[in-house]
Amino acid sequence: KRLGWAVVGLGSYAINQVIPGFLQAEESRMTAFVSGNPTKAKDLADRYGVAKTYGYDDFDKIAADKDIDCVYIVLPVGLHAEYTIRALKAGKHVLCEKPMASTVEECEAMVAAAKAANRQLGVAYRVHFEPLNTEVKRRCKQGELGDLRYITGDAGFNADPQYPPMKWRLDKPLAGGGSMYDIGIYALNGTLMMADQMPDTVSAVYAYPKDDPRFKTVEGGLNWRMTFPSGLSAQGSSSYCYAGGSRIKVFGASAAINMDPASDYYDNRANLHRGWDPGTPVRAAPPYTQFAAQVDGFSQAARSNTPHRTPGEMGLRDIRLIQAMYRSADQGGVVVKV
Ligand code: NAD
């Protein structure tokens, strides 16, 4: 039996990626849409054969809806904690979009609410369900590169303040943070996915034109570093000011893998080289999209009530690290122990 899902927030990512992902899913089906716009919710529900719609005011009524097992939060970041906790209190399992929430305290409250409700909480780090990323992780873990020495990761785009989904992203109460929260988190989370170990220090500097009118409340760019007890080090960047792209390069003692793009929706690429050679492509056959694989993975976690591959604790870890980076950058780049 497929688990039933409510999709909360019908914005651009929900409509263009999340909903189409469900159409390919094998263990998950959409049973409700939640939106502040009843006409949009009804139109989309009719189009996708979804039986029920809810508004934000009557959201708590989902508690009595037996057709909803899981709730997918696809709202602006500043609303993640509130709706995640309400859904957990309604007895549902929750997959929440990245970044998990605005503050460490909110993330901790979400993890605590999941424990209290005995329900699963996942953060939607989709590349953990993307075949090329999981193949690179497997090769790193199996030692194909030798001991890991250095990882770089960059993720950003040039933010158009007129694009509607960008408006809340440039407004701290709804965004939580700036480029590092929204897009740089891919390079940070991807670096830790490949490293499979925790850093002991972080440092960062802000990197964007300070007179840029887009960045009144959130940062437009951040360059960061991490060191690890093993001797591994990593550095990367996030930006709302450079041409869109994402890449991660993992250097081991005997080989390196370059992923570029690393966190695209549909077309990631990776190349393995052992020295100065041009290298060979890393291949992984996608069984179905990362969007479908992610919701099916969460349905399995919910069904067995065992932790999702990217649990709330991982989302909390990343917000803690980004907040430590902000503390470092606020002090001009001092090294912060984590
Ligand atoms: P969006 O602005 O297109 O959609 C947000 C939706 O929330 C809209 O339908 C809007 O009406 C609704 N909303 C409800 N209350 C609101 C309020 N008070 N202010 C503003 N909007 C409100 O944004 P999006 O790009 O779809 O992002 C939604 C979530 O998805 C975010 O958490 C974002 O980080 C995440 N996201 C993830 C990925 C990914 O690859 N995993 C990609 C894009 C976005």
From TrEMBL:
Gene Ontology molecular functions: nucleotide binding; oxidoreductase activity
The record's PROSITE patterns line, in alphabetical order, gives:
TAT (PS51318)
Q: Which InterPro entries match?
A: Gfo/Idh/MocA-like_OxRdtase_N, Gfo/Idh/MocA_oxidrdct_glycsds, GFO_IDH_MocA-like_dom, Glc-Fru_OxRdtase_bac, NAD(P)-bd_dom_sf, TAT_signal
Q: Which segments constitute the GFO/IDH/MocA-like oxidoreductase domain?
A: 135-256
Q: Gfo/Idh/MocA-like oxidoreductase N-terminal domain location, by residue?
A: 4-125
Instruction: Spell out the Pfam families in the cross-references.
Output: GFO_IDH_MocA (PF01408), GFO_IDH_MocA_C3 (PF22725)
Question: Which Gene3D superfamilies does this entry report, sorted A to Z?
Answer: Dihydrodipicolinate Reductase, domain 2, NAD(P)-binding Rossmann-like Domain
Q: Which UniProt keywords apply?
A: Oxidoreductase, Signal
> How is this protein named in the record?
Oxidoreductase domain protein
Q: Which organism is it from?
A: Asticcacaulis excentricus (strain ATCC 15261 / DSM 4724 / KCTC 12464 / NCIMB 9791 / VKM B-1370 / CB 48)
